[in-house]
């Protein structure tokens, strides 16, 4: 975790690989008999692994073959999901599907492969549209996690629109347009409703970077920049400062380049930054 929070160290990649090996050994030794701290450690490892996929543009290292898939592991014991995720995990783990799709962009070599790629993108879009169906909608999904915290609702909405924007970038590229503008507006609108210093404020980092990397309006940039600067103090981790530097690099490039790929900048110039 400390490597991920640092924002400049690339050691987090090695630690995630090590976590996978440890969990594989744990499953081999204990099977489904995981209790207490082991369950929490598995949840935390899966969260961090999924979180890093936005930076690796690959599916998670840890899959259902690596760890147990018993029902007990999916239960939220003593509010562990709130502590680990902050937002509904059903929404959060859609980032796995989106970044798995990102890893397949190189397969788009002809009409048939393009059609298959877009078919998979369509299924992910459908999941985004219906992820809260089993809860009776978004309010029900949020209430299952934190029934009286409006910050969780607004952070969840911001995260959902950030995922929609990321899916759009993966399928259509990094040019700006009406769809991008809508996503940016929804993200910023929701982020502004989350109280400064809120327990879920850190959940806004990915949405703010997505909005910041895609906005071309000075007012929106100032909102993103201000919130990230506040989070540098309230959350205090280096990766937040590095995230602000990333969006500022994007803004600088956009002065001379019509299309700016924030993910390429992160990969080529800021390899220690993991966004989540």
Strand content: under 5%
Shape: globular
Q: What Rg is obtained from the alpha carbons, in whole angstroms?
A: 18 Å
Uncertain spans: 69-73
Distance between the termini: 12 Å
Compute the average pLDDT: 84
* Main pleated sheet: none
Q: Count all strands and give the number.
A: 0
- SSE ordering: HHHHHHHHHHHHHHHH
Number of helices: 16
Q: What is the percent of helical residues?
A: 55-70%
Which structural class do the helices and strands define?
A: mainly alpha
Quick description:
The chain has 276 residues and is mainly α. 66% of the residues lie in helices and 0% in strands. The two termini are 12 Å apart.
Question: What would you note in describing this structure?
Answer:
- The two termini are 12 Å apart.
- By secondary structure, the chain is mostly helical.
- The chain has 16 helices and no strands.
- About 2% of the residues have low confidence.
């Amino acid at each position: 975790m400390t490597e991920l929070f640092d924002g400049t160290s690339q050691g987090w990649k090695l630690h995630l690989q090590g976590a996978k090996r440890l969990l594989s050994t744990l499953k081999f030794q204990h099977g489904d008999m995981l209790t207490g701290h082991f369950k929490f450690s598995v949840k935390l490892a899966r969260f961090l692994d999924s979180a890093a996929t936005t930076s690796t543009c690959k599916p998670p290292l840890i899959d259902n073959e690596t760890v147990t898939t018993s029902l007990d592991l999916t239960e939220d014991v003593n509010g562990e999901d709130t502590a680990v995720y902050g937002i509904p995990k059903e929404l959060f783990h859609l980032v796995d599907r989106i970044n798995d799709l990102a890893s397949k962009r190189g397969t788009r070599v002809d009409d048939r492969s393009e059609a298959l790629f877009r078919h998979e993108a369509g299924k992910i879009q459908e999941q985004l549209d219906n992820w809260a169906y089993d809860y009776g909608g978004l309010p029900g999904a949020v209430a299952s996690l934190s029934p009286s915290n409006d910050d969780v609702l607004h952070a969840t909405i911001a995260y959902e629109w950030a995922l929609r924007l990321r899916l759009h970038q993966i399928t259509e590229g990094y040019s700006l347009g009406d769809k991008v503008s809508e996503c940016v507006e929804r993200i910023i609108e929701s982020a502004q409703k989350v109280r400064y210093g809120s327990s879920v404020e850190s959940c806004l980092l990915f949405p703010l970077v997505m909005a910041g990397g895609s906005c071309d309006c000075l007012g929106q940039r100032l909102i993103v920049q201000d919130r990230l600067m506040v989070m540098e103090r309230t959350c205090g981790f280096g990766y937040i400062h590095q995230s602000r530097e990333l969006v500022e690099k994007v803004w600088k490039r956009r002065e001379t380049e019509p299309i700016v790929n924030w993910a390429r900048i992160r990969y080529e110039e800021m390899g220690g930054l993991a966004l989540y």
